[in-house]
Amino acid sequence: MTDIQNIRTGRHCIFALHAHLVFVTKYRHKVFNDAHLKRIEEIMRAVCADFECELIEFNGENNHVHLLVNFPPKVALSKLVNSLKGVTSRRLRQEYPELVRHYWRAQRLWSGSYFAGSVGGAPLSSVRQYIEQQNRPL
Asked: Which of 9, 6, 19, 5 is nearest to 119 (CA)?
């Protein structure tokens, strides 16, 4: 049974929807350091708040990030992903000009694809532990 603290309510529904998202940098370039990942997390938390979602867990390595998101049923996951990737790409390229040299031709930080997995079968603690164990660059 779902843990009572993970259940959220809407106007006409009760839900516990979680998704594991993975975004990869364009061309798999290894561009992120710890400061970049901290800023990405801040930006993604703000975007999730705009969508009435909750970023439960965030971590990454030098060429990809993992997110565990709790989202309401009214949010289309593809719209959330597009907003997360678009806003972080734009803001990071503005705030960290050194990232632009990796993408001078593409003008994009993220690859066009992404992974989205429903997190209902595996215990959330297992997914959270997996994301926490990523090798974050220093």
From this structure: 19
pLDDT at 1 (0 to 100): 39
pTM greater than 0.90: no
Alpha-carbon distance values, 13 to 10, 17, 79, 94 (Å) = 5, 12, 21, 40
| Residue among 96, 125, 122, 92 at smallest CA distance from 23 | 92
- State which amino acid sits at residue 25: T
Q: Which amino acid is at 120?
A: G
Tell me phi and psi for residue 55, to 5 degrees.
Answer: -85, 105
The per-residue pLDDT for 40 is 98
Identity of the residue numbered 112: G
